[in-house]
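Standup notes
- DV: blocked on the single-chain target, sequence here:
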Amino acid sequence: MVWIKRAAWALLVVFVVGFVVLASWEPMAAEKTDPQPDRVYTAEIVRDEFGVPKIYGKTDADVAFGVAIAQAEDDFFTLQDVVAMSRGRYGAIAGEEGATFDYVYHLLDARGTAQREYPELPADTRALFEAYAAGLNQYAKDHPDEVKLANLFPVAGEDVAAGFVLRQPFFFGLGNVIGPLVEGEELRREYGPDIPGFPREGSEGAEQPTEQAHQGIHPLPWGEDAALLGSNAFAVAPDRSGGPTTLISNSHQPLRGGVAWYELTVESEEGWHFTGANFPGSPFPFLGHNEHLGWTNTVNRPDMTDIYKLEMNEDGSQYRLDGEWRDLESETVFLPVRMGPVVLPIPRIIHRSVHGPVIENDKGFFAIRYGGMGSVEQLDAYYRINKATSFDEWQEQIARLAIPSTNFIYADEAGNIAYVYNAAIPDRPEDVTANWRGVLDGSRSDLIWQGTVDYEEIPKVINPGSGWLYNANNEPYTAAGASDDIDPESVSPILGVERKQTNRSRRAYKLLSQASLLDEESLRRIKYDTAYEREGYVADLWDALEELDFGEPTMKDAQLASRARDILLEWDFTADNQGRADALALLMIRDFMSAEYQNKSEMPGLRELLEKSAEHLMEHFGRLDPPMSDLLRLRQNGVDLPLDGGSDTLRASTTWQVDEDGRLSLVHGDSFIQWVEWNDGEPVQSRSIQPFGAAITRPESPHHTDQMRLFVDHQLKPVYFWREDVLANAKRRYTVTNASYFNLVIRAAAPQGVCQSTLQR
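- DV (later): unblocked, structure below
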């Protein structure tokens, strides 16, 4: 019996040792960051009645330090997730879902790209990112109890840059290529016009679906395809508005998380003065305005990615290129995957060829190559357009095509308005016969393009005669009215520019074209419009409902679905909370919109979805026609408010989660809205709104939910851009710094509830 006890003790020791190792290996193995030598940063943060921060500093770097502190005060929870993603460690926080990010981090060589390219950026741009990293480090140092993961800090500017490398490609749909390749699923791509090597689907020479890639099958690791999230943007010249040059930013992003907007204003003595919004992990706003000009963005969907099937040798270690065998670069990485109290190291092999990242599945080895690959120049370009003072300066930076994708809608104090279909589209050789929308022959080096097309080839409209511009995630060929729109035949089809319309686009184009005057009242009606045009997938859906034959329904679910269909056929095609069919229509439209928008080969089953929607309403509301506002809600920390709008209306309530009570809690749709006006001879003024509040993950803060009522009521709040307005409306004003002595003074003097790295004035 003694040996049994000894064996039991040995097993127990092995178990304990194994548990300790699995619970502690990941922080110990994490790559160490070497921050830049200490530099003292000092910034002032002023918060208004809604807690929105205005960050001031002597230098741009001081301001960037303050941006990190301000955002950490409001949302350190999300910032840490972003930092973990930027270091390939998100699986240690979020488990298997987080490890998906980490796999892509290694696949795209986010760290290697940052290490190679970040040192080549201009010194002032790197100074901005080093300062931002220093702010994150300072907050983490002052608040160790909030840190989620050991050794996550300190970080350096290079870490922040790696986050940009990781996230940006997914805005033009790279996740919808990686997903199917990883799973070994069939790949389909939308076909272009009938030109040599570029056949339409179903035409002679078209490849079969198993050899085509399709943008839109798989969502991003972030949970949704960025393109599906949508956005609206409008610019109106003074002659058409009857007064100011107007810019309306109406982005549709997730309301929470790593790509949710955060509002801020920055100003330095070096000429950086801008107000708008960024995503967690950025030292500067991505959209908004300065004194002279402004812009906003909508997601576009150019064909930015090419897929190559490699010809491999027997053991999979080499691939053939131009008749010669080359070694496939391979390395084993360990993805951290948290499971309860332990983190498991899951091995994955990462491959690369001269084409780019390589994914192995049951069908073979596939390389991918995409626009903007291997570059971090967007970090510099965003910084420069923040400080541009004229259209020429702004366009000079956009023309670099350093920002890989997204439409830009622009306006300025001089009355200029512009639309640029910005995209770093691969410079594919037009004299080479190849189906660029299919899977390419990886053994041909002439198919491995270098660089991007010239800016002159990108669709754009500048100062149209109509006096207005818009985009709602539609093709660039409807942007300014019939007399000013771009002719699709003028754009090379090999660029892969999408040919798609959204309901939002159809409505915006119709309403803008019909309006004789686009003053504030008219623009508000357009921006908050809740109607659908009976065109495209909406027409297809209602035509199918009319043709749906239930015969003599005898089953209870069939009877219920038949009644629901009859209600839907009476709908007035507005999601305004007034029609008895609004709730049913809301439940029906989203899946059809999503399928059409993502080019899915099959639409949802109509009868099944109708039955499911009807049963949901009966179960939770006891009727098929409850007010839509009872169904669709904006919810946060006990505040529960009704919403209007639907998936793909200009007042966008795009996607939701179904709560236990059957209500639909908005997940993304209308998010940060900013309305900017330049009146002749007057300083710029703007208003804005967020769905929740500035302190998005701080339930104890009064600014956790304080914008919700304004948001649901279609109201905007003032933006305090000018210093005198900021100070006149200041509710809290304090200084942040990383100076050691000053921090000691602050810790001793800071009142309860004030960040340790701040000093209340």
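- Follow-up: The chain is about 35% helix and 20% strand.
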